[in-house]
Amino acid sequence: MNSHPFLRSVVLPSLLVLLAAGCQVVASDGGVDGDAVLAAASEDHSAHGSASALVPASEAMEVDGPADALGDGSLHDLEMIWTDQDDRPRTLAELGSRPLVMAMVYTTCTHTCPLIIADLKQIESALTPAQRAGINFVLVTLDPETDTPAQLQSFARDSKLDTAHWTLLTGTSSDVRILAATLGIRYRPGEAGEIAHSNALTIIDTRGSIAYQQRGVGSGYDKALGALVRLIP
Predict the structure, then answer these.
(1) Tens-digit pLDDT profile for residues 157-200
(2) Number of domains in the chain
(3) What global pTM score does this model have?
(4) I want to staple 23 with a disulfide (CB 3.0 to 4.6 A). Which of 44, 137, 186, 198 is the partner?
(5) Where residue 94 sits, what CATH number does that domain have?
């Protein structure tokens, strides 16, 4: 994997940028009209507590082709094996056969992670059953040491996440670090097991390109919803 051109051209520069910034990255049936929503919505950026310094100042990405952060690469090129809440091996390419709504969180977070997940659940609720069946919601842990498959399964149950189209992933610390760098997510450990981190949800198309990324929480989800609906066949 270390010789993969995507790793050299995108992931490694992203890691260098994070380090230079001083971030320690550690081991017609009731549906939604996407274009109308995108035209009407506005956005904001926010973070919580000590995480605020970690949130990049860039505006949310909304693109018709591959996002600048990925260049000509694809998240599908990241040849890493994740483990889901049912202890099954999964890849991003496999999950990416449908558009993805992805966020990086951790299950013991009591601050902004619940707000990020609430935004995702509101997006889910705004979709018709047919639209819902055409996408995958993916949560990737920032704390793989704590978030074992059993912990992820318990969290999914307690959070009332429908695992028919929600997948919770854990992996190695290295894989988490690489994915976070690729998505522009900054994180570092704090006190008492807390992790300071960027707050974002990312819409990924079936090519593995970032179609839209929303930074912050509590600013609404309309633009993310609109971007997602435009990707659903």
Answers:
(1) 999 999 999 999 999 999 999 999 999 999 998 888 899 999 99
(2) 1
(3) 0.73
(4) 186
(5) 3.40.30.10
